[in-house]
What does this fold into?
Amino acid sequence: MNPKIRIQLSIMMFLQFFIWGAWFVTMGTYLNKIGFNDASIGRAYTTTAWAAVFSPLIVGLVADRLFPAQYVMGALHLIGAVILYKVTQITDSVEVFWMLLAYTLCYMPTLALVNAISFRQMTSIEKEFPGIRVLGTLGWIVAGLLIGYMKVEATTTPMLLAAACSLVMGIYSFTLPHTPPVAKGQKVSFAKMLGLDALQLLKDPSFLVFVVCSLLICIPLTFYYNFTNLFLNETGVQNAAGKMTMGQMSEVFFMLVMPWFFVRLGVKKMLLVGMLAWTVRYVFFAYGNNETLVYLFYIAILLHGICYDFFFVTGQIYVDKKAPEEIRASAQGFIALVQYGVGMVIGGNVSGLIVDHYAVTDAAEKVIAHHWQQIWLIPAGMAAVIVVIFVLTFRDNNSISSKA
It folds into this structure.
């Protein structure tokens, strides 16, 4: 790859995930500060999931058929910058939800677009893409460290920072390599855009089990994404946003060593370890504290690499190997719809209701604390049940891992 293009794409990835890391992690803490109850916070986080459901349609209809990908991405980021700024000006929970939904409908399609722009410039995706994608994780880490250092987690500053970066990204996108639409003039298939062509794979019992467990595991997963920053701040952990970036650092490490584990464990055990890690993480959150047992909090955060890479990345590889070549892209789209769309929507609402149930309020009905131990034991139990279901019903293993 041309060194200039490599630098362009690396900057693109850094900015793309800096934006997401800047506003997403600390939003629950900010919304709690301005008086949102936990159910409303959970619903606010579902906006990314709803947008994930519809983003394939936006990409498929516009970027794949009408306009170059870099122009579509630039326009979406510019519009998104304005909307995210507007979010900081309102405090009504209903208005915030709809404004966040409008913003995420701009942002989530750009996740596919940065990949599409990158892939079109590469001669060997498997060799060149990881070195560029890792800049995205670095961007997320830098955002968390910066916000933690500034001590602004409960303010509008993270969103304003993300909006400013989105403005920069929008302008920068128009300088990226030209990426014309690849399906111009082709027939539109909504089923294919959503990955529904892959429904035929559900005839395989083990694949069906994987899909069901993928959906179910996203319910306890949302407790971490939506409420960990609020939990750490409420329990007195300093620089919570910065310390949460240890999870992304762990993600990078385990991504690098995954081939070693594949050879020794196989797909079933990899997926199993990933789900077990969610149970262990929540148990550690439940029984740790910000004094002598604070190390349990740090271990729980560091488990993110195993939680994410061993289940979600391994799952993507599993899907790639199970699906026939002609529906491979549809299969990946389908599992993303199940996990990041349906699963996260259900999980966001469920986690919000459960956290709200264990909230402690003052005389004015303002949330002042939570019974966190009871809260964390619920997703721990959910994940444990899913592990048992998976162990008893999933049969595929080394026949897939040997090809990975």
Remarks:
- The CA atoms of residues 84 and 109 lie 16 Å apart.
